[in-house]
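User: Just a sanity check before I run the rest of the batch. Below are the C-alpha cells for the first item. I only need the designed sequence back.
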C-alpha cells in the first residue's frame, strides 16, 4: 500500500512535468522546456516498457514539417466538443464538408492509385480546385499559396474593427482536410474546427470536431494568420488535468514561386535539425563553427536516399566510433561545399595512417529538442558573381511566431542543377520585397538557438562514455 501511494505520487509529478513540457503558455516557457525535456528523456526508458528507439526518418523535402494538429486526433465515432461559450459560433451548414470532399475526390483517388497522396503536386491541385470554386484553401505545411486570401484579409480587418463576420478556411492534409469555421463578434473570434479523413473505402469521415474561443489572434507582418484556444477533452484532461490547447498558423500572403523552389531545393532538405549550417556565421574563407560531421549526416541521405549506415550502439550507455574512408567522407561534403581536404582535416579528426576520418554518431547525450522551427525563403537576389543570396525566416508554428530569427544564405549554382553553399549570416532584418531588394543585416543581440545541441567534444565524449568505444 505504501509503495502504491509513492508510485501514484511519483507518476503525478511526472505528468505535471510532461504538462509543462508539452503545453507551454508562452514562448519563454517553451525555451525553458529544453532542460525539462532532457531530464524527462533520461528517465523515460525506465517507465515506458517496450518502447524502442527508432532512427527518425529524413523528412521529404516536399513535406518539411508534419502538422501535429492534423495527426494528433484519435479516430472517433463521436463528436468531441467543449460546451459552446456565450456568443460562440457553431454552424456546420456554412460550408458542407461532403461537398468539399466530392470536389477533390477525383484528385484524391488518382493520388491513391499512383501512391502520390500527400505530395506537393497533389495538394496544390486540390487547393487550386477549391480556389476556383471560391474557397479559401491552403495546405497544412504552408508550402502552397493560399487561394482567396483576400477573404482572410477582410476577415482580419473585421476583427480589428470589432465588426461582425464569418469565414471558412479549408486546410488540406495528407489523409484529408481540416475545416475551420470562424465567426467574429465585437473583436472576439469563435472557432469550430472539423477534421475529415477518407476511410479505406474512400468514404469521407468526421474524425473530430472541437470548438473554442480564440484567446490568441494575430496577423503577422510576415503574412501569417495565427490563432489559438483551448477546449475540453476527456482523454487529455485525464493526463494533464487541463483543457487541450490547439493552435493554428497559416500563411496568407503568397510567396514568389522562385523563393519556394530555392527553399525546396537548397534549404528545407537540411533545415535546422541536428546541424548548424544555418545557425552560425561562416563563409568559404572562414568556416567558423560549422560542424561537418552533422552535415555528413544530413547530406548522406540526400545523396544515397537511405539513412546513414554508421549508427549508435543499441546500448545508449556505450559510445560508438567509426572510421569513414577519406574518399567517401569528402565526396559527400563536397557535393555542396567547395572545400579543400586540408580544411576538412583541420575541422575534424583525421587519421592519415588510415586515410580515414574518425566519426562518432550523435548519441543519447547529444539529443536535440524535437519541436523546432523550419526555414522559409522569402526573398532572393542574383549577384553579379553568379551567386544567389536567399533571405530566410525561421518559422516556428508551435511558438506562434513567423520569424524566430532571420538569416541570409548564399549559394552558387553549378553544373547539372547542383549547387554549393557559399556563406551564411544571421541577421536582424532584411528586405523581402523581391529579388531587387537589399539583403543586409547584423547579428542581433537576442539571437538564441535554444533548441540546438552541439556534438560532444572529445573530452566530453570520453567523460560521458567512460572513454570506452
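Assistant: Here's the designed sequence for the first item:
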Amino acid at each position: 500500500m505504501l509503495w502504491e501511494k509513492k508510485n501514484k505520487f511519483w507518476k503525478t509529478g511526472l505528468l505535471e512535468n510532461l504538462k509543462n513540457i508539452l503545453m507551454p503558455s508562452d514562448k519563454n516557457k517553451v525555451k525553458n522546456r529544453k532542460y525539462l525535456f532532457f531530464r524527462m528523456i533520461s528517465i523515460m526508458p525506465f517507465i515506458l516498457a517496450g518502447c524502442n528507439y527508432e532512427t527518425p526518418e529524413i523528412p521529404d523535402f516536399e513535406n518539411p514539417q508534419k502538422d501535429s494538429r492534423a495527426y494528433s486526433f484519435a479516430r472517433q465515432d463521436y463528436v468531441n466538443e467543449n460546451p459552446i461559450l456565450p456568443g460562440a459560433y457553431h454552424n456546420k451548414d456554412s460550408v458542407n464538408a461532403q461537398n468539399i470532399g466530392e470536389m477533390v475526390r477525383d484528385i484524391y483517388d488518382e493520388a491513391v492509385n499512383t501512391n502520390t497522396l500527400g505530395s506537393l503536386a497533389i495538394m496544390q491541385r486540390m487547393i487550386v480546385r477549391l480556389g476556383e470554386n471560391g474557397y479559401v484553401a491552403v495546405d497544412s505545411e504552408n508550402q502552397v499559396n493560399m487561394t482567396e486570401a483576400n477573404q482572410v484579409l477582410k476577415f482580419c480587418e473585421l476583427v480589428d474593427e470589432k465588426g461582425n463576420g464569418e469565414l471558412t478556411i479549408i486546410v488540406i492534409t495528407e489523409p484529408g482536410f481540416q475545416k475551420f469555421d470562424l465567426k467574429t463578434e465585437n473583436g472576439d473570434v469563435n472557432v469550430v474546427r472539423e477534421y475529415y479523413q477518407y476511410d479505406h473505402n474512400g468514404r469521407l469521415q468526421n474524425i473530430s470536431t472541437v470548438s473554442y474561443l480564440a484567446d490568441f489572434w494575430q496577423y503577422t507582418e510576415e503574412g501569417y494568420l495565427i490563432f489559438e484556444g483551448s477546449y475540453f477533452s476527456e482523454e487529455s484532461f485525464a493526463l494533464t488535468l487541463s483543457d487541450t490547447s490547439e493552435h493554428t498558423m497559416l500563411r496568407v500572403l503568397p510567396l514568389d514561386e522562385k523563393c519556394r523552389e530555392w527553399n525546396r531545393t537548397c534549404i528545407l532538405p537540411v533545415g535546422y535539425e541536428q546541424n548548424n549550417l544555418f545557425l552560425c556565421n561562416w563563409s568559404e574563407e572562414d568556416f567558423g563553427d560549422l560542424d561537418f560531421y552533422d552535415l555528413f549526416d544530413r547530406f548522406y541521405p540526400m545523396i544515397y536516399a537511405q539513412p546513414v549506415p554508421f549508427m549508435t550502439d543499441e546500448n545508449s550507455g556505450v559510445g560508438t566510433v567509426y572510421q569513414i574512408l577519406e574518399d567517401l567522407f569528402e565526396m559527400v561534403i563536397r557535393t555542396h561545399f567547395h572545400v579543400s581536404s586540408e580544411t576538412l582535416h583541420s575541422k575534424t579528426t583525421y587519421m592519415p595512417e588510415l586515410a580515414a576520418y574518425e566519426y562518432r554518431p550523435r548519441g543519447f547525450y547529444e539529443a536535440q529538442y524535437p519541436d523546432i522551427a523550419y526555414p522559409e525563403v522569402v526573398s532572393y537576389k542574383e549577384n553579379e558573381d553568379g551567386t544567389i543570396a536567399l533571405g530566410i525566416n525561421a518559422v516556428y508554428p508551435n511558438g506562434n511566431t513567423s520569424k524566430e530569427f532571420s538569416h541570409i544564405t548564399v549559394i552558387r549554382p553549378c553544373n547539372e542543377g547542383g549547387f554549393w553553399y557559399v556563406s551564411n549570416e544571421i541577421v536582424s532584418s532584411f528586405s523581402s520585397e523581391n529579388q531587387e531588394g537589399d539583403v543586409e543585416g547584423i547579428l542581433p543581440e537576442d539571437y538564441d538557438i535554444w533548441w540546438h545541441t552541439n556534438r560532444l567534444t572529445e573530452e566530453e565524449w570520453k567523460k560521458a562514455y567512460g572513454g570506452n568505444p
